[in-house]
């Protein structure tokens, strides 16, 4: 089947040139939920582009009768971030104009909602579907009021125009999937909101960070946070509901790369997730292993990041994927001197046990530069996994 | 008199070199409050360096008997930000490593305080001085617990080390003055916290932005916010106190410049403020005009910023300091085209009356780039001022 | 009259977006020479955009019978450089990918010519027009061979694709005008090649830098150098000819600005130059003052640039346009210390007499940063000029 | 034995802070030649720092009697380049202030020499040692005249101060070794000047680029070029001499890394080279394989670099070290669209046979971005090598 392809201008540059985002919309024969999938919000995080490319090719091969609902795909969704270069590297994590992290700019309804608990109270006698529709309507109405400022002669900063474009496409979706990867070098995992652990399995990844803390500025958070707030409010009023709304960030390996294994996992995970949600009718899916698939969940505040305690060069670092005991030597810092002394080697021990899931690409470190990240936990927790690098 | 000069290493770089901050401490003969004055936290905002240089020279010319309390001065307080260059320009507004705005990194006790109202309750029978001492002790104790993370093998990001150094010097001060200027081109004004309007006069500046909103991440906010919270809590409990604690950000003109008029205003204002606080015993100070000096206060949420609504080049912009009627043409955007059309001129009208207090240095604008800022208000409010540019 | 408008893609970005240049071609009724005018090759140098915009509007108001030959105009000619930002500043002087200065990338036929003197010898019996045609043909043939590499699977660096696009438009022009301005803050002047001094007058600017040295990498040089080489070679062979080929760089004031006075001078100068060349038939032009206009020529190697001899902040700098005696204090460096000493003031004297024609925008200087530029010469040489800033 | 450690300030920053280089000088008991070894001239190229660190430790373990002549080592030789960051990456290939490539700034005596052939003529009756001494003296005298400009009130750009510092240390050395690596990801190889092929063997690397073209701006070139010119001139006059002067650039693997294998090769190669030159008396060295070691020399103009012919994402790239036939698919470009079309895959074939010796780190490419480099040549030339990645 062929998608509808929509091209949307997002910015006119000083030179008069314009940059665009392009949406591929696959509309199924059968009415149903909406899935929204984007990639490359951070300039260096390109693996998701290959995932979306393969999904577009895959969906083109289907018949419209095999799709329930609609699937929207937006690869290379952030032209300003993607095309930014500093020397040969993709420096598009934050906007070079104002330093804003491209994934901390989004609009969170909950921050502007006057009284969610009052709304919840007003809905207790309605069906989940009715409540979902009513709430969605309120969110969208409030959201589209942003246009007033955007269209005023006084304008808004680019990040506010840009977020409006992306959220216009995604805010009414049931399932949002934002494909990221490490800025540096990382394992494949996903971010999962509290209460959606069961759904997370369908992505067939080994690890998930459980979002026990979030502020609503990231793309996944902005979409999900108001719904979790409403669910909580309804539960308090004795009406526990889980809405058909989910939001995911997939982390697919290493930055500035499209690692084939990470890409393959991304494609298979999203196909399986959509099949599990009933949106794709394809042979063999959802895969039989879905229900038995075991995900290791790590609480977000159980991540430990290491930063250089002195300036220097990193050597003998334990590889990505290593399971650690407390006290293991994580890496050495070869620290040079400018006061007439010799260079020295500093051994850096692990402050607790865990698994190395992300490491820096750059082995040259100013004091305070990022070195690596650890899922905290006893080795047994991570022991069953085999890494083949 | 001679100050004590202390040199503090703040970072070891990858090359092994170290960068420092240097504190000039003038200790008066008479015990009294502590004033802390710094400059150049943002790399482009250099006017305060000349102010502090002149204050150092001025204080050297005094006798220790003329100073009550102690005055600490830290010019060029952010080496990483100051020395950063992009082409010929000072690009040090945010850290080139992680995009963090150098003035949105600070530690705010209130965010970690478990229960300020409980503390307030426990102090209602004490004198203001006792409460101030007790609260200060609690804040400092909590603050110095940050050392545990800083000294751990896992380290902390540079901005967290750096803020610890600056706040170690300033957190026990009664009066904190942070000298900024516009990143672009601006008038001279200051930021003033609610309830400190009377003190603001002593700086003898024409405008003040009244901080009716703040989140505690800026340097002035981080120092002041916990005290305002305690004052509010005590007031609720029927014990209104204004502690001898104040925090100020001075905005001294245009970025990448040390405009002599702005510098002179900064020096005179700080001398007068310190004299008013009884810290300087110098002839003629506080200046007689201090009490009658009229400051125009503008609420922080009554600032309107303009951003380019299209890409292009700015022409015929009204000058800095212009008082506006609604609908006045603020500037034109000469917008070029890349689709076979002619360039066009877009007139941009003022959406409300006010005073232009800040304008961009760069007349080339991508859509969403910053153009200028306005204090909203009727022309009469600003009518008496004369600008001589 | 209406121009032909041509839109040319110059690059596809990683995101799939494309950037363009757009040419406005005014074709006169009468055959004649070709003039090529561009602006904003360096990102910060925007004044020429307003010049070209006004020229487009002016030419639209003419009748095709008033134009002899054709006039091509390319405003905002370097999208990658123009849209580049570092913080609020236009950092587009060099390509952020490889550090190449956008105006040191051009193709110079002379560097590839096997034997110009042999060619000259072969042409001594032909008319200047014939020689000009023959040489042009050779240059263009060689130039278009660059396509082989550009079209190969191995590709070429972006700067080589880009220069090919710009030079494709301009290499057959008789008169090339490249509108620049200072990266920093500067007077209005132009660059003039040896032997074209008489033509320079028509621009009605007060100063010209006489290019007694050039290497062919700049846009004006790349166009002109092969012709000067041929002229020299023919002269050696007893056939002095001045071809109807000229190439100019106009420097129109301050960077990141479109100063109205600089823009007006640019517009008037180009109109007058084209009228003088017989391309424009407009009342009153060439202006009567053209022949008597006196230009102060300064040899390129008689420019003195000053760089900071220590790190610090600049104060009390003499203003742009000042005529100097040797030993005059040009500026002071307020140099801070990090070894326990006081800040100090360094006076920087002029090492010879002259005129300040360019000054840095940024008063914060690392050791070795640029401060200002001087046309060397006795004060009498510059004495007659009045500056009104 | 202990080295003499000298710390040399190279720049005072705007903040007043200073950066340094530090030289470790091992002076042998026996008079002899001088070797100069530096690393990290380009900010991302850090492998040489580990090499020099290990050499310092190794030399400390020797007795002064084991060293003939003197060995100077300068790790982390370019603080401004090394500490530069753009996001998490080391962007120090060119100076962020003026775009100058840190390894294209050096002073080449030949460019200023008035007449080397005249000098050669004047020396034909002297011994090689005498000529070498006389020439060295002339070079150094001319070089130190640069101080006049450096010390003048007008100053010089930072790169000119900096090159003066580095060349002051190295210009009188017999053997200069500059440790680089790829900005991206590369094999281990070295640059070798014409006529020094025999000496190159001692580094025990598999590949060498033979410098049949050079302009004297790189560090190795600036040291070597005047000597090659003199040798050529003397040869013309019938006095073929090879002076005891050599200059090398080692390329040690991948940027932003200190790959242990590359480091080990660097250490062993330099030890062996110094032993071969008679400067180190250590058991087993020079290694027996030195004379039989076979180096594959590739002419500098037989390197082919590939650049993206469209914007897009790179996939299925052949790995570093692959030996190619003409027409082999080197990589695919996944090119996205913003005009309503589908993404497409572009296959990029090899335009000639050869060996992939360098590949980009970043798989996201604007049109014209660098992809990979090839040593051109028939597969048989490279066939014997085994790569184990």
UniProtKB/TrEMBL annotation, chains A, B, C, D:
Keywords: Hydrolase, Metal-binding, Zinc
Domain called Succinylglutamate desuccinylase/Aspartoacylase catalytic: residue spans: 31-114
InterPro entries: AstE_AspA_cat, N-alpha-Ac-DABA_deacetylase
Cofactor annotation: Zn(2+)
Pfam families registered for this protein in UniProt: AstE_AspA_cat
Coiled coil: none
Gene3D superfamilies on file: 2.40.50.100, Zn peptidases
Domain of life: Bacteria
Protein name as catalogued: Succinylglutamate desuccinylase/aspartoacylase family protein
Organism listed in the record: Laspinema palackyanum D2a
């Amino acid at each position: 089947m062929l998608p509808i392809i929509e091209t949307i201008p997002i910015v006119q540059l000083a030179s008069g040139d314009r940059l665009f985002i392009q949406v591929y919309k696959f509309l199924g024969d059968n009415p149903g939920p909406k899935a929204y999938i984007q990639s490359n919000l951070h300039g260096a995080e390109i693996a998701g582009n290959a995932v979306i490319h393969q999904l577009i090719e895959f969906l083109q091969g289907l018949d419209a009768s095999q799709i329930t609902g609609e699937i929207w795909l937006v690869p290379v969704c952030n032209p300003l971030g993607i095309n930014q270069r500093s020397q040969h590297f993709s420096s598009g994590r934050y906007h070079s104009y104002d330093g804003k992290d491209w994934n901390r700019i989004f609009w969170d309804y909950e921050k502007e909602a006057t009284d969610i608990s009052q709304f919840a109270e007003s809905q207790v006698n309605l069906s989940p579907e009715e409540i979902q529709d009513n709430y969605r309507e309120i969110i969208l109405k409030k959201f589209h009021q942003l246009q007033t400022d955007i269209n005023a002669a006084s304008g808004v900063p680019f990040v506010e125009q840009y977020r409006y474009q992306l959220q216009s496409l995604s805010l009414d979706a049931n399932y949002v999937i934002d494909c990221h990867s490490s800025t540096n070098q990382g394992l494949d995992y996903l971010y999962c909101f509290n209460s959606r652990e069961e759904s997370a399995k369908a992505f067939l990844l080994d690890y998930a960070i459980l979002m026990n803390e979030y502020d609503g500025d990231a793309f996944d958070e902005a979409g999900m946070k108001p719904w979790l707030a409403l669910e909580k409010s309804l539960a308090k009023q004795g009406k526990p509901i889980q809405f058909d709304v989910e939001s995911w960030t997939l982390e697919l390996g290493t930055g500035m790369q499209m690692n084939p294994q990470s890409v393959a996992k991304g494609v298979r995970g999203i196909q399986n997730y959509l099949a599990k949600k009933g949106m794709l009718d394809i042979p063999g899916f959802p895969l039989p292993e879905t229900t038995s698939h075991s995900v290791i969940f790590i609480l977000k505040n159980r991540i430990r990041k290491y930063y250089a305690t002195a300036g220097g060069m990193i050597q003998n670092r334990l590889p990505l994927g290593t399971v650690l005991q407390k006290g293991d030597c994580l890496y050495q810092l070869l620290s040079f001197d400018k006061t007439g002394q010799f260079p020295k080697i500093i051994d850096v021990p692990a402050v607790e046990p865990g698994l190395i899931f992300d490491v820096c690409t750059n082995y040259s470190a100013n004091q305070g530069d990022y070195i690596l990240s650890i899922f905290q936990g006893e080795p047994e927790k991570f022991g069953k996994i085999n890494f083949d690098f």
